[in-house]
Amino acid sequence: MPVRDIAARAGVGVATIYRHFPTRADLIVAVYRHQVEACAQAGPALLADASSPHAALARWTSLFVDFLVTKHGLAGALQSDDAAFAALHAYFLDRLVPVCAELLDAAAAAGEIHPGMDAYQLLRGVGNLCVGAENNPRYDPRRLVGLLIAGLRVRLPNIDRNGKWYCAGRRG
Fold it and tell me: Which residues contact 77 (CB under 8 A, 6 or more apart)?
Protein backbone atom coordinates (compact mmCIF):
# COMPACT_ATOMS: atom_id res chain seq x y z
CA MET A 1 0.00 0.00 0.00
CA PRO A 2 1.46 3.39 -0.92
CA VAL A 3 2.38 5.75 1.92
CA ARG A 4 -0.02 8.39 0.56
CA ASP A 5 -2.89 5.89 1.00
CA ILE A 6 -1.77 5.13 4.54
CA ALA A 7 -1.66 8.86 5.30
CA ALA A 8 -5.12 9.39 3.82
CA ARG A 9 -6.58 6.54 5.89
CA ALA A 10 -4.95 7.98 9.01
CA GLY A 11 -6.26 11.45 8.21
CA VAL A 12 -2.81 13.03 8.09
CA GLY A 13 -0.51 14.33 5.40
CA VAL A 14 2.27 12.31 3.80
CA ALA A 15 4.82 14.66 5.40
CA THR A 16 3.48 13.77 8.84
CA ILE A 17 3.95 10.07 8.14
CA TYR A 18 7.52 10.65 6.95
CA ARG A 19 8.30 12.92 9.91
CA HIS A 20 7.43 10.10 12.33
CA PHE A 21 8.55 7.22 10.11
CA PRO A 22 11.40 8.29 7.79
CA THR A 23 11.31 4.99 5.87
CA ARG A 24 8.63 2.51 4.95
CA ALA A 25 10.50 -0.04 7.05
CA ASP A 26 10.19 2.24 10.10
CA LEU A 27 6.43 2.39 9.59
CA ILE A 28 6.12 -1.39 9.23
CA VAL A 29 8.24 -1.95 12.35
CA ALA A 30 6.08 0.48 14.37
CA VAL A 31 2.86 -1.23 13.30
CA TYR A 32 4.31 -4.67 13.97
CA ARG A 33 5.59 -3.66 17.43
CA HIS A 34 2.23 -2.12 18.30
CA GLN A 35 0.43 -5.34 17.40
CA VAL A 36 2.93 -7.51 19.28
CA GLU A 37 2.34 -5.31 22.35
CA ALA A 38 -1.43 -5.69 22.00
CA CYS A 39 -1.05 -9.47 21.86
CA ALA A 40 1.33 -9.46 24.84
CA GLN A 41 -1.01 -7.31 26.93
CA ALA A 42 -4.00 -9.50 26.08
CA GLY A 43 -2.52 -12.54 27.85
CA PRO A 44 -2.75 -11.30 31.45
CA ALA A 45 -6.10 -9.64 30.78
CA LEU A 46 -7.56 -12.86 29.39
CA LEU A 47 -6.14 -14.84 32.31
CA ALA A 48 -7.87 -12.48 34.73
CA ASP A 49 -11.21 -12.51 32.90
CA ALA A 50 -11.59 -16.02 31.43
CA SER A 51 -13.55 -18.81 33.07
CA SER A 52 -10.37 -20.91 33.33
CA PRO A 53 -6.67 -20.68 32.48
CA HIS A 54 -7.20 -23.12 29.60
CA ALA A 55 -9.97 -20.88 28.23
CA ALA A 56 -7.61 -17.90 28.49
CA LEU A 57 -4.92 -19.87 26.65
CA ALA A 58 -7.38 -20.84 23.91
CA ARG A 59 -8.56 -17.24 23.46
CA TRP A 60 -5.00 -15.90 23.47
CA THR A 61 -3.79 -18.41 20.88
CA SER A 62 -6.76 -17.40 18.73
CA LEU A 63 -5.58 -13.78 18.92
CA PHE A 64 -2.05 -14.96 18.14
CA VAL A 65 -3.30 -16.82 15.06
CA ASP A 66 -5.15 -13.70 13.88
CA PHE A 67 -1.92 -11.74 14.33
CA LEU A 68 0.14 -14.31 12.41
CA VAL A 69 -2.29 -14.76 9.54
CA THR A 70 -2.58 -11.00 8.95
CA LYS A 71 1.19 -10.54 9.17
CA HIS A 72 2.12 -13.36 6.83
CA GLY A 73 2.36 -10.90 3.94
CA LEU A 74 5.16 -9.14 5.80
CA ALA A 75 7.26 -12.28 5.93
CA GLY A 76 9.31 -11.32 2.88
CA ALA A 77 9.95 -7.83 4.17
CA LEU A 78 10.81 -9.08 7.64
CA GLN A 79 13.38 -11.46 6.19
CA SER A 80 15.04 -8.75 4.13
CA ASP A 81 18.43 -7.24 4.89
CA ASP A 82 16.89 -3.99 6.17
CA ALA A 83 18.43 -3.21 9.57
CA ALA A 84 15.06 -1.99 10.86
CA PHE A 85 13.74 -5.57 10.70
CA ALA A 86 16.77 -7.22 12.30
CA ALA A 87 15.60 -6.99 15.90
CA LEU A 88 11.90 -7.67 15.30
CA HIS A 89 12.06 -11.45 15.66
CA ALA A 90 13.90 -11.17 18.98
CA TYR A 91 11.39 -8.56 20.15
CA PHE A 92 8.52 -10.83 19.12
CA LEU A 93 9.97 -13.74 21.11
CA ASP A 94 10.96 -11.61 24.11
CA ARG A 95 7.41 -10.28 24.44
CA LEU A 96 5.25 -13.27 23.49
CA VAL A 97 7.07 -16.35 24.81
CA PRO A 98 6.77 -15.20 28.46
CA VAL A 99 3.06 -14.44 28.00
CA CYS A 100 2.44 -17.86 26.51
CA ALA A 101 4.51 -19.44 29.32
CA GLU A 102 2.40 -17.65 31.94
CA LEU A 103 -0.80 -18.97 30.36
CA LEU A 104 0.60 -22.50 30.09
CA ASP A 105 1.85 -22.43 33.68
CA ALA A 106 -1.53 -21.23 34.96
CA ALA A 107 -3.38 -23.95 33.04
CA ALA A 108 -0.93 -26.60 34.31
CA ALA A 109 -1.21 -25.34 37.89
CA ALA A 110 -5.01 -25.60 37.60
CA GLY A 111 -4.63 -29.21 36.44
CA GLU A 112 -6.16 -28.41 33.07
CA ILE A 113 -3.16 -29.30 30.89
CA HIS A 114 -0.14 -31.53 31.28
CA PRO A 115 2.74 -29.66 32.90
CA GLY A 116 5.98 -28.96 31.06
CA MET A 117 4.68 -27.65 27.74
CA ASP A 118 7.32 -25.34 26.31
CA ALA A 119 5.95 -21.93 25.27
CA TYR A 120 8.45 -21.47 22.45
CA GLN A 121 7.58 -24.88 21.00
CA LEU A 122 3.87 -24.13 21.18
CA LEU A 123 4.27 -20.73 19.48
CA ARG A 124 6.47 -22.29 16.83
CA GLY A 125 3.93 -25.04 16.21
CA VAL A 126 1.07 -22.54 15.98
CA GLY A 127 3.13 -20.44 13.58
CA ASN A 128 3.82 -23.43 11.37
CA LEU A 129 0.10 -24.28 11.27
CA CYS A 130 -0.56 -20.75 9.97
CA VAL A 131 1.79 -21.08 6.99
CA GLY A 132 -0.10 -21.13 3.70
CA ALA A 133 -3.41 -19.89 5.04
CA GLU A 134 -3.41 -16.81 2.82
CA ASN A 135 -3.21 -18.85 -0.39
CA ASN A 136 -5.76 -21.57 0.28
CA PRO A 137 -9.38 -20.79 1.18
CA ARG A 138 -9.93 -24.47 2.11
CA TYR A 139 -7.24 -24.31 4.81
CA ASP A 140 -8.29 -22.99 8.21
CA PRO A 141 -5.38 -22.66 10.64
CA ARG A 142 -7.73 -21.50 13.39
CA ARG A 143 -9.44 -24.87 13.40
CA LEU A 144 -6.17 -26.79 13.60
CA VAL A 145 -4.80 -24.53 16.32
CA GLY A 146 -8.04 -25.02 18.25
CA LEU A 147 -7.52 -28.78 18.02
CA LEU A 148 -3.92 -28.38 19.15
CA ILE A 149 -4.93 -26.34 22.21
CA ALA A 150 -7.76 -28.76 23.02
CA GLY A 151 -5.22 -31.58 22.81
CA LEU A 152 -3.17 -30.06 25.62
CA ARG A 153 -5.97 -30.80 28.10
CA VAL A 154 -5.49 -33.44 30.74
CA ARG A 155 -7.85 -36.28 30.08
CA LEU A 156 -9.27 -38.30 32.91
CA PRO A 157 -8.93 -42.03 32.40
CA ASN A 158 -11.94 -43.81 30.98
CA ILE A 159 -13.49 -45.54 33.96
CA ASP A 160 -16.81 -47.36 33.89
CA ARG A 161 -19.43 -47.33 36.65
CA ASN A 162 -17.68 -50.23 38.36
CA GLY A 163 -14.39 -48.37 38.57
CA LYS A 164 -12.77 -50.46 35.82
CA TRP A 165 -10.50 -48.68 33.33
CA TYR A 166 -11.22 -49.17 29.62
CA CYS A 167 -9.98 -47.91 26.27
CA ALA A 168 -12.23 -45.44 24.52
CA GLY A 169 -14.61 -47.31 22.23
CA ARG A 170 -14.05 -50.63 24.01
CA ARG A 171 -15.72 -51.77 27.17
CA GLY A 172 -15.54 -55.17 28.54
Answer: 25, 28, 85
